[in-house]
Amino acid sequence: MRSKTLKASRRVRLSTTVLTAMALSAASPAWAKLPPEPPPEAMAIGPAAEPVIVAPVPPVAAAIAADIVAARAESPDDPVAAGLEAFYGERENAPAWIEGATLSAAGAAALARIARADEDGLDPAAFPRPDLAFGRGGPEPAAAVARADLAISEAVVRFALAAQSGRIPPASVSRLITLKPERPDPVAVLRRIAAASDPAAALDGFNPPHEAFRRLKAALAKERAARAEAAAGPELVPNGPALSLGQRDDRVPALRRRLAVAAVEGAAATAYDAALAAAVAAFQAESGLKADGVLGARTLTALNGGQTPPTDRLAVILANMERWRWMPRDLGRFHVFVDIPAFTAEVVHDGSVDYRTRVVVGATRTPTPVFSDKIRFLVVNPYWNVPVSIASKEMLPAIRSNPDGYFERRNYEVVIDGRVVSPTSIPWDEKTIRRVRIRQRPGDDNALGNIKFMFPNEHSVYLHDTPSKAFFEKPARAFSHGCVRVQDPLKFAEALLAEDPSLNARRIQRMIGGREARLDLKSPVPVHLTYFTAVADAEGGLTLRQDVYGFDARTARALAAAP
Questions:
Q1: In the chain, count of helices (H) and strands (E)?
Q2: Low-confidence spans in the chain with pLDDT less than 50
Q3: How far is it, in rounded angstroms, from Cα 66 to Cα 57?
Q4: What's the farthest any 2 CA atoms get from each other in the chain?
Q5: Which residues sit opposite 478 in a β-bridge?
Q6: What would the pLDDT profile of 394-429 be if each residue is shown by its tens digit?
Q7: Are 274 and 266 in contact (CB under 8 A)?
Q8: Residue 59, SS3?
């Protein structure tokens, strides 16, 4: 992507007189502007007026002013261009990163740090900027100095924006990801970096401050090193289904190269032919495997020397680093962390996990949304208000066949205008089921169990108990309609209410079985419903989890298409 400021400045060709006038208008203080010419009669009366001295505008400042005017005209709604205009206006359009004709120490440090953006999971090419050797070959014209200084400023701002709030909007991956990344103010970014004693460290500070992100960054470096080492050795054949004689697969050319089998051109290039099957059988015999010529999982592992092709792992790491940029920078000293791919929830206090429990999350057709909020109250002995979508899609046929029996067996009731009515009084169809409210009374069979933990949100999801305990024994637990089911709600409540002396699990236990009751927390507790499929340990070791909702592939595609 070419810098908007640079593109605009190259189209502007103004005379020195016009540049000076624009610079004065854009940046010169009020005292430096020429007063209007007085009328002739005023000139004839009294002593002659003293001449007004106009301070000369440095050529570089004039060129910067002109480039900014052009950039704003081209992109009036671009916040980066507006930030450049405000920042340079504060300094009367003096360059920020170039002293004389060469880069200042701050400018060189900023450029060097941005050049290493790939270490942060970003693309250095996304931040067009001048070379570190700018000006070393001799004096540069004012227009070139202006363009270079503006390009550095724009690169600094765009790096900070990408590092802190991500390269892509969360909604580009899924409408159910409603995190709101904190975007830094461009003017504040430029002030901060220009005034920093260590611009590189100041730029690094825009990356997520979380330990989990720092560990992923280390895992990224480790994975790239492994990839470089693998590239220096035998080519790895990608994973995939078993291959046998006569089949076709895009991995066949890589397999031919790995086994030194002559390449085949044209339509037969992907064919698993007799020559290739014979080479695979020979390799199997040498490796102590069954020499059947079929490329199965064991043969592929042996062929790759026990290694896994690193490309997918790299993409997963980058996707997870991007998702950390969407998270609140401050998760809260005391917070709840729901990890959807891990099927767990944690109560975290001062960076340490006080309590961890298993949870059941949304099924693939009804995913749990990803966002942050605050738990504000609990409801003991809750009614379950059945969502219209569930009532219409899953309940209506059974209700129509036997309304009384259906509602009685499941402890349901029908509410219209706040009044409970008989289910037999309703002409059940697609329209009426949307006009009434179906709810399940509190009790042992209530779908929400005995407690729900509320953080009112646009998705209408929450954490809750459940009578269906068998699901917690399964390793993968994506079965709900979107809400998060907690394995032991009383223990979870005890950990959640650790800092609220007025509430505790014993009090809640005594209330179970009674009427529905709301308990407000003294201080709302931040809750984060997160989606991380790659987790690194302190040594850079990587654990990959099931991509339950397919967000990794979507994130990778969106990142590849990002400017």
A1: 20, 17
A2: 1-2, 4-38, 40, 42-44, 310
A3: 12
A4: 114
A5: 361
A6: 999 999 999 999 999 999 999 999 899 999 999 999
A7: no
A8: helix
Picking from 129, 14, 23, 8, the residue whose alpha carbon sits closest to that of residue 73 is 8
- Distance, CA of 60 to CA of 102 (rounded, Å): 13
Question: In sequence order, what are the residues at sequence separation of 6 or more whose Cβ sits closer than 8 angstroms to the Cβ of residue 14?
Answer: 22, 66
Q: Which residue has the tokens 């961890």?
A: 356
pLDDT at 531: 98
Mapping DSSP to helix (H, G, I), strand (E, B) and coil, where does residue 545 land? Answer: coil
Per the structure block, which two tokens stand in for 140? 């540069």
Domains of the chain: 4-204 (no CATH), 210-230+310-382+446-563 (2.40.440.10), 237-303 (1.10.101.10), 384-441 (no CATH)
Going by the DSSP 8-state scheme, the letter that residue 522 receives in this structure is E
Distance of CA 558 to the CA centre of its chain: 11
Rg (CA), the chain: 33
d(CA 101, CA 138): 8
Residues known to be catalytic: 464, 483
Render pLDDT for 465-481 as a digit per residue (tens, 0 to 9). Answer: 999 999 999 999 999 99
Q: Is the dihedral of CA 429, 435, 440, 441 positive or negative?
A: negative
Check if the beta carbon of residue 217 is closer than 8 Å to that of residue 321. yes
Say which residue the tokens 């009036």 belong to: 76
Among 479, 457, 195, 488, which residue's Cα sits nearest to residue 358? 488
Angle subtended at Cα 210 by Cα 534 and Cα 550, rounded to the nearest 5 degrees: 30
First to last CA, the chain: 6
Angle, alpha carbons 108-113-119 (nearest 5°): 160
pTM of the model: 0.78
Contact 218, 540 (CB under 8 A): yes
Residue type, 1: M
493 is written with which tokens?
């409540």
The two three-digit tokens of residue 420, written as one number = 């409970």
CA-based nearest residue to 120, from 166, 154, 151:
166
Q: Which amino acid is at 66?
A: A
Element at 557 (helix H, strand E): helix 551-561
Strand (E) or helix (H) holding 452: strand 451-454
pLDDT at 52: 59
Residue type (1 letter), 80: V
Instruction: Please tell me what DSSP assigns to residue 337.
Output: E
Give the number of other CB atoms < 10 A from CB of residue 540: 16
Give the pLDDT score at 285.
86
Give the DSSP per-residue string, 366-414: SPPPBEEEEEEEEEES--EE--HHHIIIIIHHHHHH-HHHHHHHTTEEE
Which pair of tokens denotes residue 164? 């802190």
DSSP code of 80? H
